[in-house]
Design brief:
single chain, 242 residues, alpha+beta, Phosphatase 2c, domain 1, 5-stranded antiparallel β-sheet, 36% helix, globular
Length: 242
């Protein structure tokens, strides 16, 4: 099993009264996650927490030693969390519309598996190259894909917060599963859109390029988002392959 160093931080930002994000880093279970709640106040916080708790419960009981096994485990984690949120809404109709975007990354000897839903993101920093591994499930990303607007216009579009997929909204969850090799020296960044809406990729890359520790790199990214306005909760998880 590759040795993975993990670090996570979350910040309420400068404009929100509460933090609807959640993260989890578990080196002992070889996984990490970021979830960004939606649905307002208590509902959003609950959705992201349900996602994190569902993943922890599953990974505490089940292990996967191969990519194929890890694919099934990550997929099941999303399914369990999705059902958990839907069951809550059934019992608490006032929370209808609650859900979360989510990134879940798990490692084994063969590499990693990443599960992705929504507009939270995962990036890889490898040999000086900073690459976005995920594709936003959002209205503005669809508009970019169709050539209607540019990536830069999408950053400031009035509908940039319209999400097309989220955990806990529909019974049949459509999930992106990404797999790859984990190379020593790789740094993986999982983050909520509170970072990427505020800070462009070049400035994030510069923060990750520094000689600082993982917690210091995460803190630098959060500081950049707050300096740019901090309009949303900001959550960051960093995973370095040792």
């Amino acid at each position: 099993m590759p040795e993975i160093a993990l670090s996570g931080q979350t910040d309420v930002g400068l404009k929100r009264a509460n933090n609807e994000d959640a993260f989890m880093v578990r080196s002992d279970l070889n996984f990490c996650l970021v979830a960004d709640g939606m649905g307002g106040a208590a509902a959003g916080e609950l959705a992201s927490r349900y996602f994190a708790e569902s993943c922890l419960k599953l990974f505490s009981k089940a292990r996967a030693d191969s990519i194929s096994g890890l694919l099934l485990l990550v997929q099941k984690a999303f399914q369990v969390a999705n059902k958990c949120i839907l069951n809550h809404v059934e019992q608490e109709p006032r929370h209808k519309g609650m859900g979360c975007t989510a990134e879940l990354m798990a490692f084994c000897d063969e590499g990693f598996v990443l599960g992705h839903v929504g507009d939270s993101r995962t990036y890889r920093f490898r040999n000086g190259e900073f690459t976005q591994l995920t594709h936003d499930h959002s209205l503005v990303q669809n508009m970019v894909d169709q050539g209607m607007i540019s990536s830069e216009e999408a950053r400031y579009h009035s509908h940039r917060n319209v999400i097309l997929r989220a955990v806990g909204i529909e019974e049949n969850l459509s999930l992106d599963l990404i797999k790859g090799k984990a190379t020593p020296g790789d740094i993986y960044l999982l983050c909520s859109d509170g970072l990427t809406d505020m800070v462009d990729d070049d400035r994030i890359k510069t923060a990750l390029s520094s000689a600082a520790s993982l917690p210091e790199k995460a803190d630098a990214c959060i500081s950049l988002a707050k300096q740019a306005g901090g309009t949303d909760n900001i959550t960051i998880v960093l995973a370095r392959v040792l």
